[in-house]
Amino acid sequence: MTKFDPDEQAVPRSVAVIMDGNGRWAKRAGFERIRGHEKGIDAVRTTVTECARLGVEALVLYAFSEENWARPKREVEMLFRLLKRFLVEERDTLMDNNVQLLHSGRRERLAPDVLALLDETVAMTAGNTGMKLSLAISYGARQELVDAVQALARQVAAGELPPGAIDEDAISAALYQPSLPDPDILIRTAGEMRLSNFLLWQISYAELHVSDVCWPEFGAEQLHDAFRAYGRRVRSFGKVL
Ligand code: IPE
Ligand code: IPE
Ligand code: MG
After folding, report:
1. Cβ(65)–Cβ(140) below 8 Å
2. Residue minimizing CA distance to atom 3 of ligand 1
């Protein structure tokens, strides 16, 4: 593996990943799509531990979108079976790496057993002081904004919030995980150049990095490549440097 020294290279404070291409990876290897999701868990473990080791403060992983509910029932069931396994089997990894687990997304459509394991793992890791890891499950950025607008509107209707006080900070604070800093880099695997309804508000100034490898093949080396590319970007935020 190529060396990546966090003292010499720029490490983004906040990272978001669209983990894509599990199905394609499996198909190419002659397996069913679910095998790609299964193998994708190894890639999640690698990315989580490597980001934590390098000092990333926050990592958001897109695991299941609002639109993914429209996939075949069997695939959805298998995905949630894997998620439940992940939430139990990766507890040691989260604890050993001082990672705090969070959830970004709507809870309504999640089954009670999924919610129970999610809440248990979130509670178990709540005292961890290292990296925050948010799993975006049943997540859609537009739905997140709808939920935020409704929450703010309720406060206005109750007379608790003057409409003029709704500024960028108020909107950010009404999102699912307001404690997470906006991503500095958005990584997407499997070569697709789209956002697929992910973090539309939060990525307004994120650097975009598309990796051609499918998610099950995304390892520390590909993560380092993404961070090196990030380090080469000139972030002027609209100003003249
Ligand atoms: C990403 O891989 C995982 C989820 C969306 C849950 P895909 O399942 O989208 O794989 P491709 O894009 O069909 O190859
Ligand atoms: C985005 O991938 C969602 C996740 C990675 C969870 P999709 O494969 O669902 O998105 P599209 O269909 O390429 O937009
Ligand atoms: Mg896909």
Report:
1. yes
2. 20
Per residue in 3-29, pLDDT (tens digit) is: 899 999 999 999 999 999 999 999 999
Query: Using CA atoms, how far apart are residues 147 and 187, in angstroms rounded to an integer?
Result: 25
Ligand nearest to the CA of 136: 2
Residue whose CA is at the smallest distance from ligand 2 atom 14: 196
Tens digit of each residue's pLDDT (9 = 90 or more) over 101-120 = 999 999 999 999 999 999 99
**Count helices and strands in the chain by DSSP H and E runs:** 8, 6
Q: Which ligand is nearest to the CA of 76?
A: 1
Burial level of 60, CB count in 10 A (0-12/13-18/19+)? buried
In this prediction the pTM is 0.98
Write the CA distances from 140 to 48, 127, 198, 229, integer angstroms: 22, 28, 6, 27
Domains (range + CATH), the chain: 14-140+182-231 (3.40.1180.10)
> So which residues are the catalytic ones?
20, 68
Q: Which of 19, 20, 33, 135 to mutate to test the pocket of ligand 2 (most atoms within 8 A of CB)?
A: 20
